[in-house]
Amino acid sequence: MKLSFTTLGCPDWELDRIIRSAAEYGFDAVDFRGLAGEMNLYKLPAFSGGVTRTREQIRGAGLAVSCFSSSVHIVSKDNFERNLAEIREYAKLCSFFDTRYIRVFGGSIGDLSRDEAVRTAVRHLEEMGAVAKEYGVKLLLETHDDWTACADVLAVMKQVDPEAAGVLWDLHHPYRMLGERPEETWAALGPWIHYTHVKDSYKKPEGGFQYCLPGEGDVPLKSMHTLLQERGYDGYYTLEWEKKWHPELAEPDIAFPQYVQFMRSLS
Ligand SMILES: O=C(O)c1ccc(O)c(O)c1
């Protein structure tokens, strides 16, 4: 089982600390979602002028970069050109780091009908995916925001080049937000799922939910892992510890090693 974490979980860590801790805790890879307060990673010296040294550091620690997590929302019409430029930057980084995936969001559909939103998502994903494909990279649409339901993601996937786009199954969102059974998600999206985000939560009595350490909530992570293994999934299990957006969550030096221990105990 290949383990990774997104840097959303350690918003205050410098690159050296991220690499050192990832190796020390027994991770296989890091998924970059921002660093040192900058969400557009390619703007940082460590991922532009100094990128060769960064690659040496990461490889030297025995790690890979499992994914570059972009901020791109594919449905957005206003930001299409900026999003396309962002994809190109991440695609270049992917080919430099030998990373196969760029995460994208579907985003809010606003006042579009679902059919219009699907058509827009398909068109934009095709255009952005073509850029990614030039670099041998695939865009992964995350089961998130207005694209959490497997039926909505499937409607898009059926119409795009499978070499240019696939699915990132956030194990939490379809289950927690919609009560989607994991078997249902897999039955719809299995052929497109290349990557997973792992997180846990429990429902609060007053409504809503609370994120918690994996294994301490009621997301059926154990049976999800069994399902994925039985179906032949061999991609990463990436902890998405949303410390950046929820500062009250436990520090990464608690959550990250706990995650490795929890995941290793599943198999
Ligand atoms: O990358 C992000 O910003 C992000 C935020 C919240 C989520 O639930 C998520 O899956 C990703």
From TrEMBL:
Its EC number is 4.2.1.118. SUPFAM superfamilies: Xylose isomerase-like (SSF51658). Keywords: Lyase. It is an enzyme of class 4 (lyase). The keyword Lyase applies. Residues 20-250 form the Xylose isomerase-like TIM barrel domain. InterPro entries: IolE/XylAMocC-like, Xyl_isomerase-like_sf, Xyl_isomerase-like_TIM-brl. GO terms for molecular function: 3-dehydroshikimate dehydratase activity. This is 3-dehydroshikimate dehydratase. It comes from Paenibacillus konkukensis.
